[in-house]
Amino acid sequence: MLSASKPLLALTSLTAMAIRLPPHTPTHYAPPHRRTPPFRSITRAALSPSTTAMAVSLPPSPKKVLVPIAMGTEEMEAVILAGVLRRAGADVTLASVEDGLEVEASYGTRIIADKSIAACADQVFDLVALPGGMPGSVRLRDNEILQRIMVRQAEEKRLYRAICAAPAVVLMPWGLHKGRKITCHPSFIGDLPTFRAVESNVQVSGELTTSRGPGTAFQFALSFVEQLFGPHAVEDVESTLIDAGLERSTEVNRVEWPFDHKPQGGPEGAELLHRSTALKKLLKEQKQASMMYGGICYSPLILQKQGLLQDKTVTAHPSIVNQLTCQVIERSKVVIDGNLITGKGLGTVMDFSLAIVRKFFGHGRAKGVANGMVFDYPKS
């Protein structure tokens, strides 16, 4: 979300700060091999005697996944877990342990759950995955309904997961870590039993899988996809993330990005107005004033339509590269050209964000932020 104190206007494909993830995976996100043809009913009158014994096979029920959330949940972990699993075809339920469905996550993002945790009490899930964050992990731990769901999940030997602070703050008090190798965020690793603690990004131990933080959330989520759907599904989902095999960052026409300017107008939420004259004016003012602007995924195409990519070098989502008339570096996650920054897609958003931090505040600050998220960041 833009504010009057941040001199960067960056467009993303995500156009709402109050995030509501749909309860079912949209058809266009489902991997091709998981799509099923439309169901066509057959009336008995149309069947001949030779076909009355014909068996009609229905598509298998989707895997059911529960992702509980609370006030102070780490938003990146919750949204990445739900988003990646829905791309794989899972039926994911975001369930609030609070009195209402809307929760404010650890860094202020508002997330609207699909239902309350009480509505999930008697349901059976193939997987329950706990995001971390503080104080969200504490609020998850203190919810008795969620505790009963998790204990039953473990007793019935169905899959359960926890990331970041949740392995130490939630699983340990509930006794769901016993006899397992587990990992968690470095800030909490000292709370784990020494002989059971490991520092791997993703640790699988029977039905339990644990991970370290926001920087390992994609890897964590993809491990679920493999366990629920198999390695072919992982390949399908990975292809939508646009991450593997790319250079981390490329910078041309280097300039310093000072942080002592005020942006040239524009209300908060201007990123929602992709087609508005107000946004067009704002973007042009940013460029004319030599202020920073940018976009990720499909947004460079918006910048081009507004005449903001002339003589620029960018990267963008592969599906729109052929529509861009400027120079494109396809093998880089992030490209910085003067005051313009562009990113390739969903799987590169961490590098995109940290590149902005580095330009404004320096490499040391970016490295510190990356370490806090347990994200692999270059030393120099």
From TrEMBL:
SUPFAM superfamilies tied to this protein: Class I glutamine amidotransferase-like
Keywords: Repeat, Signal
Coiled-coil residue spans: none
InterPro entries: Class_I_gatase-like (IPR029062), DJ-1 (IPR006287), DJ-1/PfpI (IPR002818), Prot/Nucl_acid_deglycase (IPR050325)
Any one of the GO CC terms: cytoplasm
Domain of life: Eukaryota
Signal peptide per UniProt: 1-18
One protein family per Pfam: DJ-1_PfpI
Every DJ-1/PfpI domain range: 63-227, 265-358
CDD domains noted in UniProt: GATase1_DJ-1 (cd03135)
Alphabetical GO biological process terms: glyoxal metabolic process
Family statement: Belongs to the peptidase C56 family.
Descriptive protein name: DJ-1/PfpI domain-containing protein
Annotated organism of origin: Triticum turgidum subsp. durum (Durum wheat)
Lineage start: Eukaryota, Viridiplantae, Streptophyta, Embryophyta, Tracheophyta
